[in-house]
Write a structure and sequence with these properties.
Strand order of the largest sheet: 5-6-7-8-9-10-17-16-12
Structural class: alpha+beta
Strand content: 25-35%
Shape: globular
Mean pLDDT: 96
Largest sheet: 9 strands, antiparallel
Low-confidence stretches: 1-8
Length: about 800
């Protein structure tokens, strides 16, 4: 037996005292006498990066998560040395770094302590794999709350939870189950009305403990790689989320049809079945823009092929579906069937594009086609090749979108459900094992898919959706929450997951409406539709193993509810499009949990159910069977019940009656909500009016409407219309001011204005200081008026 050697377990190791430092531009290096180096980089006054190494030098600085197109810069940076610490000061925060052990603390400029190391950075040598297990622990303040972390099936507030980040094919997952499909190692802390964020940019398996193991300590650690994290100062949660979203990137604008309703199942085949489904939507007048083809459209599940028995002429079918307003979206998985007669396999084999095991043979695993090899999407040449494979699907057959699945990556019939950890990856010139590349594999597949679809869809915009993702994936793809279950608990989970994804940078997300596994009751499906139409991505999807899940699979009442709420989504498309524009331009999440909306109200800190859709619509789903209403929290301010126009004063929890064909929906007083007429698909109708629901408020409120050609790239050349509305309410007057940006001319010529909540009877109307007769604007006593869109200021005067 060997004892007392350097091979013995050493336990945790810590930095020792600082012996030197260097200040180079925006970065400061602190060197300790045991070769630990801390590099502090000030990217913005409120965004600071902390990067540690234990070997005396840093490895190549590379990240898939960071959006390198973003330009960073600070206004003020000062380094001072005190007796026991160094202080870095920006125009927003002060960071103190202890000379004895590199522990750090961060304060605002009023010396309020925002964040403080407990043990700080420490590490454990990994003798099994090499490198370090890197660790960080910090103090948790009294009453501190934690949010974010992306795709987690648990309470909105993570206080008391421990979570794991390792992209996993988690079929029929349950509440609190860890880990799931996506990895977003970013959280938001909130205490004493101050918010901050931590983004731990480490792609190994990571863990976060929010005071579960020790009551007043929060910690995060990784099984390898560097301790490399970004601190983001608020003090508002809005500031934290926007800065994080800027750091990891934003998508481009999707075509408007993508924001419509989508229908999917595993699987719709043959062609006659697909057309039966699409025809039924049109017959029942339930709007729908996209139909999905799952793996059964392929020849033996071989990607980029068609089963000609099921789909003898796919180009003709796709064109006929398009004539009826349906865009076709197809699934593509990463597993390439090992088949010497299969052209995709042969190309990848010839080019040596498949992932290999440590000793040289190709990684082999079983998925839907049987034994497969898997492309290494971390190689730029592989991504370029993969992008080129979409030419036939997109530019020749006419497919409008691609759905990436099984890309955690998922492998069947193995204990860990994924690649062995010794699989090697190119990692864009930074060769590594699957331990490091696992969490980004799905994102790199989606990235390659995005570039292919974009290339061949041009001049139209691409649409890609992925199941697995790492921070930054939102630059390339939308997502959904994976293989959920048709249960009431999963309806509750879906509501929280999409809110959490929205404040974690990945706003373009939805759930499988109705549940993927098992079969929902009609009531559950109706309640899920009522929630799903208020999610950025809206799709019914189900497993073929558990019956049918089209709206007409249930009774007439459910069909009517589905039609009512999907039609409402289509009416709200300009509002939803504007939400998306603000997301890509300003990093504002499309869904806002109540704590994001009003962090100073402590009653919001533990709310799960209610959320703000866009900026001015409050939604609270019904999450229990047999409900005739529910208790919900109305945030501070004034809110109109959408269905009754009754005005409520917020800042309190109340009971709201709700029929089966309704859920509680409220509109912020002062809001101007744009609407289109109901269409069966985007672009079906030409209309000459934009409906504006104007909600009275005694005070001021800002609203906006973004519009463009609904597809294509002219909006990037300034051909868009961004209307800023200012709604000013007085005791006996309402003033609507309009300011337009952009060169796009909207096809309609008039606004149909619906005045809601006016406390006075209208006696006079002025447009741009000119008095208008009521009959000139079709004014009716039910407070509708039709006005030419070319006005700057509208006065509605009463008595």
């Amino acid at each position: 037996m060997i004892t007392n050697t350097s091979l013995e377990y050493k336990g945790d190791l810590y930095p020792s005292k600082i012996v030197s430092y260097e200040h180079e531009g925006d970065s400061i290096f602190f060197n300790t006498d045991n070769k630990v180096i801390l590099k502090v980089t000030v990217l913005r006054d409120s965004l600071i990066r902390f990067r540690f190494t234990t070997k005396g030098y840093f490895s190549n600085d590379f990240s898939y998560a960071i959006d390198k197109s973003q330009l960073h810069g600070y206004n003020f940076l000062e380094l001072t040395e005190e007796e026991t610490y160094f202080q870095i000061r920006t125009s927003k925060v002060k960071c103190k770094i202890q000379k004895a052990d590199l522990r750090l603390s961060i304060y605002d400029l009023n010396d309020f302590l925002i964040l403080e190391d407990e043990l700080g950075f420490h590490w454990e040598e990994s003798y099994e794999y090499g490198g370090n297990i890197v660790k960080m622990s910090k103090y948790s303040k009294d009453g501190e709350c934690y949010y974010g972390l992306g795709d987690k099936a648990t309470q909105m507030n993570l206080k008391g939870k421990r979570v794991e980040n390792f992209a996993t094919d988690q079929y029929a997952y349950q509440k609190d189950q860890e880990p799931l499909y996506k990895v977003v190692p970013f959280y938001i802390g909130l205490h004493n009305k101050q918010s901050y964020g931590i983004f731990f940019d480490n792609t190994f398996r990571t863990f976060f403990d929010f005071c579960q193991e020790r009551r007043n300590i929060t910690s995060f650690w990784a099984e390898g790689g560097e301790m490399n994290y970004y601190f983001i100062y608020g003090p508002q949660m809005q500031d934290v989320v926007t800065t994080y979203t800027d750091l990891t990137g934003k998508p481009e604008l999707p075509p408007l049809w993508v924001l419509g309703y989508h229908q999917c199942k595993w699987s719709y085949y043959p062609e006659s079945k697909v057309k039966e489904i699409t025809s039924k939507f049109r017959e029942l007048q339930i709007p729908c823009d996209a139909i999905y083809l799952d793996i059964d459209y392929m020849d033996g599940f071989r990607c980029f092929t068609w089963n000609k028995n099921y789909f003898p002429d796919p180009k003709k079918m796709v064109a006929e579906l398009a004539e009826d307003g349906f865009k076709t979206v197809v699934i593509i998985d990463p597993g390439i069937k090992i088949d010497k007669d299969y052209w995709v396999y042969k190309e990848a084999l010839e080019k040596d594009y498949f992932c290999k095991r440590a000793d040289g043979p190709y990684m082999k695993g079983k998925v839907w086609p049987g034994e497969c090899n898997f492309p290494d999407y971390t190689n730029p040449a592989v991504r370029e090749w993969w992008a080129g494979l979409f030419k036939e699907l997109v530019s020749e057959i006419g497919v409008k979108g691609v759905w990436n699945d099984m890309n955690e990556p998922a492998v069947m019939e193995v204990p860990n459900k994924t690649f062995p950890m010794d699989v090697r990856h190119f990692y864009d010139g930074n060769p590594c094992s699957h331990r490091k590349a696992h969490n980004i594999y799905g994102t790199q597949m989606a990235r390659a898919t995005y570039h292919g679809v974009k290339r061949f869809a041009y001049p139209k915009r691409p649409f890609v959706i992925t199941r697995s993702a790492y921070s930054g994936a939102q630059r390339y793809t939308s997502s959904w929450t994976g293989d959920n279950v048709a249960t009431w608990e999963h309806l509750w989970i879906a509501n929280i997951q999409v809110q959490r994804m929205s404040i974690s940078g990945m706003g373009f997300t939805g759930s499988d409406i109705g549940g993927f596994a098992e079969q929902p009751s009609g009531e559950l499906y109706a309640r899920w539709i009522q929630l799903g139409v208020f999610h950025p991505f809206c799709r019914t999807h189900s497993s073929g193993d558990h019956g049918n899940q089209e709206p007409w699979s249930f009774d007439e009442e459910v069909i009517n509810i589905t039609r009512k709420f999907v039609s409402l989504r289509y009416q709200l498309l300009p509002y939803l499009y504007t939400m998306f524009w603000q997301y890509i331009e300003e990093g504002v999440p499309m869904l806002k949990p109540l704590v994001y909306f009003d962090q100073d109200d402590t009653q919001t800190h533990y709310r799960n159910d209610e959320f703000i859709f866009g900026n001015q619509i409050l939604v609270c789903p019904i999450l229990e069977p047999n409900a005739v209403g529910r208790r919900m929290y109305i945030p501070r301010g004034e809110w109109y019940n959408y269905w009754t126009n009754e005005l409520f004063i917020g800042g309190r929890e109340i009971w709201i009656d709700s029929k089966f064909d309704e859920i509680p929906v409220f509109v912020k007083a002062g809001a101007i909500i744009p609407k289109y007429p109901v269409q069966q698909y985007v672009g079906e109708l030409e209309f000459d009016e934009l409906i504006l629901d104007v909600y009275y408020k005694n005070g001021k409120e800002q609203s906006a409407v973004y519009e463009d050609a609904q597809d294509g790239y002219d909006y990037k050349k300034g051909r868009y219309s961004y209307l800023s509305f200012r709604n000013i309410g007085k005791e006996k007057e309402l003033i609507i001011q309009v300011h337009k940006e952009g060169k796009y001319e909207t096809p309609y010529s008039k606004y149909k204005i619906n005045l809601i909540g006016l406390p006075f009877k209208v006696t006079e109307i002025e447009i741009d200081n000119e008095k208008i007769e009521f009959d000139e604007i079709s004014f009716e006593q039910n407070n509708f008026l039709l006005v030419d869109k070319e006005f700057n200021e509208l006065h509605i005067i009463g008595e």
